[in-house]
């Protein structure tokens, strides 16, 4: 075990380096392969037109709503955001889609990525300022906010970066907090009646499918499902302890499977949140899949990841 000599008389003790002082923050800055950012960035930006024209196509209808009905969220009152007139809504809609498609190419990632975040932020203010506020957008919005901080990356970038680690950690934490705060909101507004009452039964009556209608005949099972859902949401912070690649894949399969099951039962899907969940996956392995499939032996051993800023091995 190495030791460090103590300073002699009159000597000044060494000042801990920034790396030493930041030990307690290492989790936030654990290096992540830049290829993971490149792949997830493409997915996140290509989802924007899907969201604008499919998931939240109803936002476009706010262009035809009288401006007197506009009741901006707190952030909309604090910032000098425009009132959603027909012209404003249409301009924001198409500017957002075009900026996202351009950003998905990887060009000018800071400029175009920042534009996408700001335009999507305004799109969400327009969407949620008429009495309905969804909670499935925050993790995706955080993803759009942090992606421009990384800069230029490529799908086959072998380097790792602490900045990329911080960005992905921010999205991961927000995904987890979405579940935890959803459980907190259930207790805050519904109390224990949320878990012991007919919450899921009412949802199935309103939006049930052929896969869930039979559950109305077993109310005890529905109550048990409510308790299980509440317990899992409160336990969501434990997911932050998952770091191995296989465990993260299993976590994503579980979370996305849960949302697909909810959609199959009551036709509710949190697509933006599911996109944010995908940030947890080791996407840096994706560019190697075609080569491994072509090779009968599974391909060569992958090259060692170089630290950020270092030249790749020759």
Automatic annotation (TrEMBL):
InterPro entries: HTTM-like, HTTM_dom
Keyword Cytoplasm: no
Major subcellular site: membrane
HTTM-like domain residues: 29-275
Top-level lineage group: Bacteria
Topology term for the membrane: Multi-pass membrane protein
CC per GO annotation: endomembrane system
Pfam families recorded: HTTM
SMART domains, per database record: HTTM
Tagged with keyword Transmembrane: yes
Keywords: Membrane, Transmembrane, Transmembrane helix
Region (Disordered): 293-314
TM segment ranges: 43-63, 83-104, 111-131, 137-156, 163-185, 221-243, 250-283
Cell location: Endomembrane system
Name the UniProt record assigns to this protein: HTTM-like domain-containing protein
Organism name: Geodermatophilus poikilotrophus
């Amino acid at each position: 075990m190495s030791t460090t000599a103590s300073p002699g008389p009159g000597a000044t003790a060494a000042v801990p380096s920034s790396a030493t002082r930041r030990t307690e923050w290492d989790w936030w800055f654990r290096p992540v392969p830049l290829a993971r950012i490149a792949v997830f960035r493409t997915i996140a930006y290509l989802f924007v037109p899907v969201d604008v024209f499919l998931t939240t196509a109803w936002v476009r209808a706010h262009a035809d709503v009288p401006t007197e009905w506009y009741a901006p969220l707190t952030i909309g009152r604090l910032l000098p955001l425009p009132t959603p007139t027909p012209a404003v809504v249409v301009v924001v809609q198409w500017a957002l889609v075009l900026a996202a498609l351009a950003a998905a190419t990887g060009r000018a990632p800071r400029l175009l990525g920042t534009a996408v975040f700001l335009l999507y932020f305004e799109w969400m203010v327009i969407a949620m300022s008429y009495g309905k506020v969804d909670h499935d957008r925050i993790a995706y919005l955080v993803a759009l906010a942090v992606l421009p901080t990384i800069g230029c990356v490529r799908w086959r970038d072998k380097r790792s970066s602490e900045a990329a680690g911080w960005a992905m950690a921010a999205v991961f934490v927000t995904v987890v907090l979405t579940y935890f705060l959803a459980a907190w909101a259930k207790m805050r507004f519904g109390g224990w009646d949320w878990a012991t009452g007919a919450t899921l039964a009412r949802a199935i009556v309103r939006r049930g499918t052929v896969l869930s209608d039979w559950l109305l005949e077993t109310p005890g099972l529905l109550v048990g499902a409510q308790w299980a859902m509440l317990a899992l949401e409160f336990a969501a912070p434990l997911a932050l302890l998952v770091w191995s690649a296989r465990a993260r894949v299993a976590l994503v399969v579980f979370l996305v499977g849960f949302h697909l099951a909810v959609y199959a039962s009551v036709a509710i899907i949190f697509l933006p949140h599911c996109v944010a969940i995908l940030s947890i996956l080791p996407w840096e392995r994706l560019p190697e899949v075609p080569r491994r499939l072509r090779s009968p032996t599974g391909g060569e051993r992958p090259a060692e990841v170089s630290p950020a800023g270092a030249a790749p091995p020759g």
